[in-house]
Amino acid sequence: SEHRLADLERVQVLGHGNGGIVYKVRHVRTGELYALKLLHPHHQSDAAVRRQIYREIEILRRTDSPFVVRCHSIVQSGAASGDFALLLEYMDAGNLDSLLRRHRRLPEAALAEVARQVLQGLSYLHSQKIVHRDIKPSNLLVNRDGEIKISDFGVSKMMVRSLAPCNSYVGTCAYMSPERFDPDTYGGSYDGYAGDVWSLGLTVLELYLGHFPLLQEGQRPDWAALMCAICFGEPPSLPDSASDELRAFVASCLQREADRRWTVEQLLAHPFLTRYQSESSLVLKKLLLLPEQCLA
Ligand code: ATP
Ligand code: MG
Fold first, then answer.
1. Which residues bind ATP (predicted)?
2. Ligand nearest to the backbone CA of 69
3. What's the complex ipTM?
4. Do the Cβ atoms of 201 and 252 come closer than 8 Å?
5. Which residue, among 73, 69, 63, 71, has the nearest Cα to 124 in the 3D structure?
6. At what angle do helices 96-103 and 193-209 cross, to 10 degrees?
7. Using one digit for the tens of pLDDT, what is the confidence trace for 103-148?
8. Ligand 1 site: residues with CB under 6 angstroms?
9. At 164, is the pLDDT very low, low, confident or very high (cuts 50, 70, 90)?
10. How confident is the model at residue 165 (pLDDT cuts 50, 70, 90)?
């Protein structure tokens, strides 16, 4: 469908990051809400960053899945012809990072639901030969229907053959897998897809613990400390309160060698997901309705 910027009124800022600012907007005539992400490729002097912006647009144009945030249209923004805005499906319950901060930590049943939906999103993306490469709580969006969708394709790649070293990376390195730092040691038959599984494992662990697992609370995430923790540190362990199934799930994702990690399809049948099959979606929905409450 056709959308013009003039038909949209800004309601509030939803967030900003490396990619650009994101507004909540309302379509004046229909009252429909959207998220509008502004991108300014021509303001970027860095060619690599410019390329990434076009890549994000290209990927969003192609994807069509209930587990991936939908892009309704790409509109020209501003007078400069190089400026774009992505008109995205509005996710009214925010991202998993803010949900975590509201609840301090998330109960296992909700995590099983997060894992199931993100794995379905990854299964779709990987089938389309897209590696997301930036799975982390703030890039997983939620709505009040309890749907979780993968968003932010700012650093994604279509069918990677080469490895992207950390220094060519625009965002944070925190959720990057060991083979992104050291492909010779950890890469095996590297195809990039297993990196998304690593990041999902780290994300689930963070949502359970309430803080980023590879650094001490309060420790500054500098490049060297992170690389050491990811490539050489002991795999982060779960407290006794965690179930055996959750422990096993996280361990299956956080195998340091990419070849030993479970695949997305294997993880979709993991005992952690089957354990909470019947209740997980309800627990997540309740969590979304109960602000400022710790159910963990
Ligand atoms: P970062 O570099 O921090 O990852 P970014 O510039 O790549 O950010 P996004 O991750 O796409 O931008 O969006 C930033 C934030 O804006 C998200 O974490 C989310 O809170 C909010 N946001 C983005 N898209 C939507 C959406 N479709 N619906 C609701 N909120 C959204
Ligand atoms: Mg983001």
1. 37
2. 1
3. 0.95
4. yes
5. 63
6. 20
7. 999 999 999 999 999 999 999 999 999 999 899 999 999 999 999 9
8. 14-15, 17-20, 22, 35, 37, 69, 88-91, 94-95, 138-139, 141, 151-152, 154, 171
9. very low
10. very low
List all residues 6 or more positions away from 213 whose beta carbon is below 8 Å from its beta carbon: 202, 205, 206, 236
User: Per the annotation, does 37 bind a ligand?
Assistant: yes
Q: How far is CA 128 from CA 59, 98, 166, 185, in A?
A: 10, 29, 24, 28
Nearest atom of ligand 1 to the alpha carbon of 19: 6
Distance CA 103, CA 107 (A): 10
Question: Does residue 201 come out as left (phi exceeding 0), alpha (psi in the -120 to 50 range) or beta?
Answer: alpha
**Using only C-alpha atoms, what is the Rg of the chain?**
19
Atom of ligand 1 nearest to the CA of 171: 2
The Cα 38–Cα 5 span in angstroms is: 11
User: Residue 161 — very low, low, confident or very high, per pLDDT cuts 50/70/90?
Assistant: very low
Q: Which ligand is nearest to the CA of 172?
A: 1
Known catalytic residues? 134
163: its two tokens: 């490895």
**CA 15 – ligand 1 centroid, Å:** 6
> Quick one: which of 237, 208, 211 has its CA closest to 295?
208
